[in-house]
Specification:
The complex is a heterodimer of chains A (315) and B (327). The longest helix of chain A has 25 residues. Chain A is globular and about 70 Å long. In chain A, helix 1 crosses helix 4. In chain A, helix 7 links the parallel strand 6 and strand 7. Chain A has 315 residues and is α/β, with parallel strands linked by helices. Chain A has ten helices and ten strands. The C terminus of chain A is likely disordered. Chain B folds into two domains: 97 residues, no CATH class; 200 residues, Rossmann fold. A six-stranded mixed β-sheet of chain B has the order 6-5-4-7-8-9, sandwiched between helices. The mean pLDDT of chain B is 83. The chains are: A alpha/beta (315), B alpha/beta (327). The interface between A and B is medium-sized, with 40 and 23 residues.
């Protein structure tokens, strides 16, 4: 029991040697703009904390930055939206299975949420259907989510279609929560973009990309497309002209993807290997924080629903 | 065309089927990378071009490989051509024995003309020439130096045509003229070896051109001379352009000549004019040829050229295609 989660935890522990684990906690804690007014205590500032949480008077008295801690009014809900179609059983950029990297990322986020006392739910599936695991707390629950994802994303599963999961979330969940979409390097089409726009209006949305395997590398073996089984001979993929065109097209494609996410105002990050998951997740949370703190005023002025569980704390 | 080892073909086909089967099974279990969003690569025009090229070379390699296998299997089955031949023996010795008395000039010229032509296509045959009037003169001995023979025959024909007296001067001065018996005896003695030691490997014949009008007393009568022919195995073919015999009298010159020729196993011709001579000579040669043919032989000759050439070409194409595919 709890094997997958233990693996995730051990990776996080290693990461913590290089970067304080509290840093991640801090980044995670600032995902939600909501603050209660119930002052708990003061604690030392750690990088990643919101500047507006700093108690300047106490800081002046104490000599080093202190931040105010509040008791969370209620549990937040984190919904992991995962593609568990055939695509996720393919290889990632590092040569690992994309599923394993997705599980790694989900585990980190889930564990952070667990430490924060939040409940974690899961929506996963493929183009043929979505499955929902209702949000709950606890490590066992988290482990079950990870096991679900790992079991579902197999080569002979259904074709991938993250839009189905996004639509499912849109139909099923109306309460505001943190959506973390874990999918591969797909280029969202217009319909998906519209879905994301509507989700973004209702929830906090993060997008974590599991980067796909490079197709035109030298010395690779033959490959096949998981969607339709068509083959890619290694001899052609290694052709210098094809490789050059592929690299150029890859850069343009990535630019188009980034453009989509920038239009949507969704923070996007991704990892091509399990070693990159923690730093990239950290960067993603950081990016989301700066984006939302920048976007707060705009959100308020445009009249979009904001997190209304408690009054905004003005630092 | 037939195959010496026809059973190689089904063996090769079975081996090929087995190899294809095993290769297909191995390919199924081979390590291929599952990837997603391959349209990142496959949608590129460069990729499509390269794929088309790759497929063309692949098809070329498959076809060439199949051809190579088929051709080598065919060559291994030893395609052979079976034929029967009756080898013609070209080991003949012919002595032209020409009476050069004035009446024979036309026939002699025709005979030398025919042999002048024939000398160009001789291969292994030897001919010699003896002319006689009152004395016999050997113009040239049995020889297979065909350039030399052609030259001598040309000179002789020119002399027959022009009536060049100096050419025939050695044949005069004997006791009489047209001493056919002496002349024939000289001709028969012109074959190498002496007496009855007949060379089993070479046929011997004399073409004797004479009208058999003898004036004077020869040492040999015609019949005596002809007796020399039998122990030596020499056939006498006689050409008599002036056969003026009446009735069946066996003492007439033509009848005597015919008797001599046929008793030696040869033949007798009495052409009306010199133009008939080439046909007669041809007939003589053919009769000699049919009598001296070897036993029919079964010849089985391997003919691997075509399959091996095809194998070489397809092998080269296969190597080139493989090199292109590996790049």
């Amino acid at each position: 029991m709890a094997r997958l989660l233990q693996q995730v935890q051990s990776k996080m522990f290693i990461f913590a040697h290089r970067r304080a684990l509290g840093l991640l906690d801090g980044e995670y804690g600032s995902l939600f703009k909501g603050r209660s007014l119930d002052f708990d205590d003061l604690r030392a500032y750690t990088p990643g904390d919101e500047v507006r949480d700093i108690d300047w008077k106490a800081t002046a008295r104490h000599g080093s930055p202190l931040v105010k801690r509040y008791v969370a009014v209620r549990r937040q809900t984190v919904l992991l939206v995962v593609d568990t179609g055939r695509n996720m059983a393919a290889l990632a950029a590092s040569g690992e299975c994309k599923r394993d990297i997705a599980v790694q990322a989900l585990g980190v986020l889930g564990y952070l949420a667990h430490r924060h006392g939040d409940v974690v739910g899961l929506v996963h599936g493929n183009a043929e259907g979505s499955r929902t695991v209702p949000p709950r707390s606890g490590e066992d629950h988290l482990e079950r989510l990870l096991q679900d994802v790992r079991r579902s994303a197999v080569l002979d599963g259904g074709p991938s279609g993250i839009a189905h999961q996004l639509g499912h979330v849109l139909r099923t969940f109306s309460r505001r929560m943190l959506l973390v979409v874990v999918a591969d390097g797909l280029l969202p089409d217009a319909a998906t973009e519209m879905l994301l726009r509507r989700l973004q209006a209702r929830h906090e949305v993060l997008w974590f990309t599991v980067r796909d395997a490079e197709l035109a590398g030298p010395g690779d073996s033959d490959a096949f497309e998981v969607a339709d089984g068509s083959g890619i001979p290694a001899a052609i993929a290694a052709d210098p002209a094809v490789r050059a065109a592929y690299l150029q097209a890859g850069i343009e494609r990535e630019q188009r993807r980034q453009e989509v996410f920038r239009r949507l105002g969704i923070a996007e990050g991704g990892a091509g290997g399990s070693a990159d998951v923690l730093p990239e997740l950290f960067a993603l949370l950081e990016r989301h924080r700066t984006r939302t703190s920048r976007g707060t005023g705009r959100t308020a002025s445009s009249g979009r629903p904001t997190f209304s569980e408690g009054p905004q704390h003005a630092g | 065309m037939e195959l010496s080892f026809w059973w190689v073909l089904p063996l090769a086909a079975a081996a090929l089927a087995l190899a294809v089967n095993r290769a297909a099974r191995r390919a199924r279990g081979r390590d291929v990378r599952p990837v997603a969003h391959s349209e990142r690569l496959t949608a590129l025009p460069e990729y499509r071009r390269a794929l088309r090229r790759h497929r063309r070379w692949l098809a070329t390699a498959v076809v060439a490989g199949f051809l190579l296998l088929a051709a080598t299997a065919l060559a291994a089955a030893r395609p052979a051509e079976r034929s029967t031949t009756r080898p013609e023996l070209r080991n003949r010795d012919i002595i032209l024995c020409l009476d050069v008395s004035g009446s024979m000039a036309g026939t002699d010229a025709a005979i030398t003309g025919v042999f002048e032509q024939l000398a160009k296509e001789f291969d292994g045959e030897r001919i010699g020439m003896v002319m006689f009037d009152s004395r016999a003169v050997q113009l040239f001995p049995l020889s297979d130096d065909y350039d030399y023979i052609a030259g001598e025959l040309a000179a002789a024909r020119k002399a027959f045509d022009d009536g060049g007296d100096a050419f025939f001067s050695g044949t005069w001065g004997g006791n009489g003229s047209s001493l056919v018996g002496d002349g024939l005896a000289s001709c028969l003695r012109s074959f190498p070896g002496d007496g009855n030691a007949q060379d089993a490997h070479r046929s011997r014949s004399v073409i004797l051109a004479t009208d058999n009008y003898v004036s004077g007393t020869p040492v040999f009568t015609l019949e005596q001379a002809a007796q020399l022919a039998t122990p030596r195995g020499i056939r006498i073919h006689a050409l008599n352009p002036g056969d003026l015999d009446y009735g069946d009298d066996k003492d007439q010159p033509g009848a005597r000549l015919r008797a001599v020729a046929e008793s030696s196993g040869g033949s007798y011709f009495a052409p009306d004019n010199p133009d008939a001579v080439p046909g007669i000579v041809q007939k003589v040669r053919e009769s000699e040829a049919t009598e001296h043919q070897g036993a029919p032989q079964l010849v089985v000759a391997d003919r691997p050229e075509l399959p091996l050439l095809a194998a070489l070409l397809s092998g080269a194409v296969l190597l080139f295609a493989g090199w292109r595919l590996e790049r």
